[in-house]
Amino acid sequence: MIEETITSDSKLLNDVEKKDSIIEIRDLWKVYFPDTPAEVKALRGVSLIINHGDFISLMGPSGSGKSTLLTLIGCMARPTRGEIILDGINIADLSQTQLSDIRKQKIGFVFQEMYLINTLTALENVLLPLIPYGITKRDKERAIELLKIAGLEHRINHKPTELSGGERQRVAICRALINNAPILLADEPTGNLDSKTGREILNLFKRINEEQGTTIIIATHDPQVQKYTHKTLIMQDGQVYFYEKNHN
Amino acid sequence: MKIINIGKFAVKNAFRKKTVAILAIVGIGIGLTLQIVINSYSAGMQQRFDEIFSELAGSFEIQEKNQPTTFMSQLPSNITSTIRGSPYNTRITSMSYEQQLPPTVGELYNGLLGENMLGRPRLLNIRGIVLENFMEVYSDLDELTLNSRYFTQGADECIIPYDMWKNNTELFDIGKTISLMVNNTYYYNLTIVGIIKSSVGGIRQSFTQTGYDVYTSIEVTTKILNEILRSENHFIHYESRGYTSVHISPDNYNILTVKTDITDTDKIQEYMDDLLAFLDQQYSNISFSSYSIAQALSNMSDYRKTMNTVLLIISIVTVLAGGMGIIIAQLVGVDSRLKEFAIMKATGWKEHHIILTVLIESITLGIIGALAAVSLSGLFILIFSHMPSPAPTPIFTPTMLVTAFGVSLFLGLVGGLYPGFRASSVNPIEILRGG
């Protein structure tokens, strides 16, 4: 039996156990084109806590603020107001370089489009985030290990043009994980895949979450994703509503 | 290690837009090729001028005024002792007098000496000299090929220039003879004993390229001129070609080269004028003229500077066009890969990492363009230097290589800078928005 509860985001911050949190968001606002006729309030005072090892689906209609929330958690934009604390670090006041470091150390991204580099092999694409920082033998071993987890051990030296859509997305997931980032943000990762391949990808996310303890947030329109995640955050009009599943 | 990784990655990506990259390489390759070829010719010319200046800066030639050819100039046989006895002797370090034969003596070889750059048959220019005096003034005879020797003064021997031997070894080689025509049935033979390394002979010949300078002793040319004048049967052949006995005088010299210790080209002109005025005074029935090759070349320096400036501008414009090619190639490449750069930023690449990547990509194109240019210009220079031409041999120096790669590096840097900044300023949010 599944018990469902829906909570407003202000209550959510107080109710959730904070001692194991990896992401803390307090009164987060993001306003595009402020004080102009085109002003858009993409986020309206979002507050929430996400714990280590959470596997969350972020759902909501287009324009509800999902991508904006991922952008801010992913240190790719600054909030108009509010705080984001990632693994104990308040990122609101960090410089661009410091934000880059946070992205490298703490966050992995998976996108709807895989954006693999066609001149590089699957292995080299996985190692892409490490290129500017130097690639060690151990990094290569980890990349191969990730590709094995993703079922791509036979595709290591293949170029993206030689891979199927599902295989390319799995390479992109491995690329997001190569930094040992504790947080994985995915934006419509199954959006361009057929349902069977989509299921394979979601199973891979689940396996990564279970085996490596990676905190995963998947922004999606696909209701099937909820079957794989522990919790669902529903967004509407720039606010977050909590939708939790309890498997009894 | 880090830069090597970025470098490897960038080099792999330099050809993402193959056609555009190749066009950029072709553009910069053509520009640099032009620059290298121009520079190598300019360097060759400069070296040649420098050699001539260092050798002939204080030298000048004296001939009889208004004579159309050197062998028609008739200088008095005591001219050297007249000059030695003059107040101008103090500046003179050496003198070389010379007697030349009319080109008619070489008629036997008409059609066998090839053509000069104007497509005209090459002629033999027989120069009678005193070897010791000549070598004090000129360096043309300094280098002999293997098994060569200098002629013995007074003997019926000669030395020939390198190309004359190279182009017809069957006819002209050590031990073979050159038959000089006294009349249609009587020839005077000179044995070839040496081959000099100068391609066609003396400095003047290297500019005019009318034929080959053959050197023999002045006693021999005097003997041949005497032979021509010895009987009417002999001379009739020359009269039929418009010569008179005035033009063929065994007792006179045709040209005198005076070497002084003066190195300033303006002062040498002043010295020449004074000496000629003195000679005109001494020989009332002859007028003299003088000519300084070094000064003539010096007078050409303004022309050379203008030419070099024009050529430099042409090569700069061409190289810049190549540089624009790199900018365009990189801009096209960067624009089509903005999302890729956004991903790189999203995964922790910093802006300077991306700028560095694009710079290395554009430098790679520049360096490949420079490599192509060096190969291509080497080929062109090789081809051009084997074509008959009075132009000096082009010189390919390490400086030109360094310059070519320096220019390509500069163009790569400049060409990649703006695209690099453009790539680095991409906002990774665009990816999340599906932009």
List the helices and strands and how they pair.
The complex is a heterodimer of chains A (248) and B (435).
Chain A: E1 2-8, H1 9-15, E2 21-32, E3 40-51, E4 55-59, H2 66-73, E5 81-86, E6 89-90, H3 96-106, E7 107-110, H4 122-126, H5 137-149, H6 165-177, E8 183-187, H7 195-212, E9 215-220, E10 231-236, E11 239-247
Helix pairs in contact in A: 6-7
Chain B: H1 2-13, H2 18-56, E1 59-64, H3 79-84, E2 92-100, E3 123-129, H4 131-137, E4 157-161, H5 162-167, E5 177-183, E6 186-196, H6 203-208, E7 211-217, H7 218-230, H8 232-239, E8 255-260, H9 265-282, E9 288-291, H10 293-299, H11 301-336, H12 338-346, H13 351-385, H14 398-424, H15 429-432
Parallel strand pairs in B: 3-7, 4-6
Antiparallel strand pairs in B: 1-8, 1-9, 2-3, 2-8, 4-7, 5-6
Would you summarize the structure shown here?
The complex is a heterodimer of chains A (248) and B (435). By secondary structure, chain A is an alpha/beta fold.
Helix/strand structural class of chain A: alpha/beta
- Strand fraction of chain A equals 25-35%
Runs of chain B in which pLDDT lies below 50 for 5 or more consecutive residues are none
- Tell me the number of helical segments of chain A per DSSP (H or I, 4 or more residues long): 7
The geometry of chain B reads as elongated
Count of helical segments of chain B? 15
- Computed CA radius of gyration of chain B, to the nearest angstrom: 32 Å
Residue stretches of chain A low in confidence (pLDDT < 50, at least 5 long) are 1-8, 13-17
Strand order of the largest sheet of chain B: 5-6-4-7-3-2-8-1-9
The percent range for helix content of chain A is: 25-40%
What's the gyration radius of chain A in Å? 18 Å
Overall average residue pLDDT of chain B? 85
Globally, the shape of chain A reads globular
Sheet of most strands of chain B: 9 strands, mixed
The biggest sheet of chain A, with number of strands, parallel, antiparallel or mixed sense and barrel status, is:
7 strands, mixed
Distance between the termini of chain B: 34 Å
Helix content of chain B: 40-55%
Major interchain interface with per-chain residue totals:
A-B, 35 and 28 residues
Number of strands of chain A: 11
> What is the mean pLDDT of chain A?
84
Secondary-structure element series of chain A: EHEEEHEEHEHHHEHEEE
